[in-house]
Write a structure and sequence with these properties.
heterodimer; A: four-stranded mixed β-sheet; 7 helices; 6 strands; 39% helix; globular; B: mainly alpha; 0% strand
Chain lengths: 193, 155
């Protein structure tokens, strides 16, 4: 593609944003674990894709569930990228980003809201999250809610462990969960699975 | 019915074709504006588009309308064909003979668009028809008339 057409495309995207037609803006970002996909709506961050997830599939899913007006627009994700960079550098312990929760509803959303309040460097159990979401016996459903978290990292589902301390699962793979817990000083670098 | 892909995919797959056609239809100067108008109109209408099976034809139809608007606004001034040829060469397309491009640029709008779509963008008749908003038969006729005229001009 020629630079001339890139300029034209960028101008088109700027005008689309001005006209309020940019329903979903996305960008990719580097992380110590691999590339992340970041997507936002006008309400806030709506999806974080982890390195082992297929970015194209996530975009197709956003087109179906949020709006097909999905465009790559890196500048729209600058603040998200900035905070994530600081977090991975160990210089940020609390994200201050508007979030769009529309991809989770009901019990799952309540679980994720509870997870969102777990402080940096601390862990909770799936049972505790189920209780906070209003149904202590729905431990398995709480696990599913973690697994389907559309906003991993920012909504820190990596801080939820099994009762007894086993790691449980992670959408981005267990090595990533361990890496994040090491970054936050919870694990000493030795696996506890 | 095919689900609508993310609009970025539509842009990635069809922006080059839309640009090539617009450069052929309105020249390099107008193509930039027409391109933006085309994709803005497409993005506005996109969520309500019922069927994603012929996105290319849909986009080319919009592009064609924007090209017609452009010519109307300009009072059907002739296209600056020398620049079209230069731009086409930059994009790695076969370098057209200047005389040929001048003759294509002098054709009436429908015939010019039909010729540009067939030989500039290598579209089949059905897609040319979609782009021009006419029947395949009418597209074939426009192309035929355009070619006949070109042969006469260049003979």
């Amino acid at each position: 593609m020629t630079p001339a057409i890139d300029t034209t495309i960028n101008r088109f995207k700027a005008r689309a944003a001005e006209e309020g037609l940019l329903d979903v803006a996305y960008a990719t970002a580097d992380s110590p674990f691999g590339p992340l996909l970041l997507a936002r709506t006008r309400r806030g961050l709506v999806r974080v894709g982890l390195p082992n997830q297929d970015a194209d599939e996530l975009l197709v899913d956003l087109a179906e569930r949020v709006s097909p007006r999905v465009l790559e627009a890196p500048a729209e994700l600058d603040e998200v990228r900035r905070e994530l960079d600081l977090y991975f550098a160990g210089k940020l312990d609390h994200f201050d980003l508007p979030l769009d929760w529309r991809l989770s509803g009901g019990f799952r959303r309540r679980v994720l809201r509870a997870i969102d309040r777990i402080p940096y460097g601390q862990t909770r159990t799936y049972t505790e999250m189920a209780r906070k979401a209003g149904n202590e016996r729905a431990v398995r459903a709480a696990g599913t809610a973690c697994g389907s978290n559309p906003l991993p990292l920012v909504v820190p589902c990596h801080r939820v462990l099994r009762t007894g301390g086993a790691l449980g699962g992670y959408g981005g793979g267990l090595p990533m969960k361990e890496g994040l817990l090491e970054l936050e000083g919870v694990l000493d670098g030795k696996s506890s699975t | 019915m095919t689900a609508l892909p993310p609009f970025q995919t539509v842009l990635d797959e069809h922006s080059a074709a839309v640009m090539a056609i617009l450069r052929g239809a309105v020249g390099r100067d107008g193509a930039d504006d027409c391109f933006q108008e085309t994709f803005l109109a497409a993005l506005r209408a996109y969520p309500k588009l019922g069927d994603a099976s012929n996105l290319r034809g849909w986009l080319l139809t919009i592009a064609h309308r924007k090209a017609i608007d452009f010519h109307r606004a300009r009072g059907r001034n002739p296209v600056p064909v020398a620049e079209v040829a230069a731009e086409a060469a930059e994009d790695g397309l076969p370098e057209p003979d200047d005389g040929l491009w001048a003759a294509v640029g002098a054709l009436p709008p429908k015939q010019r668009a039909a010729v540009a779509l067939r030989y500039g963008s290598d579209l089949p008749h059905v897609e040319i028809a979609a782009a021009l908003g006419c029947s395949p038969e009418a597209a074939r006729r426009s192309l035929h008339e355009g070619l006949k005229r070109l042969r006469k001009e260049l003979a």
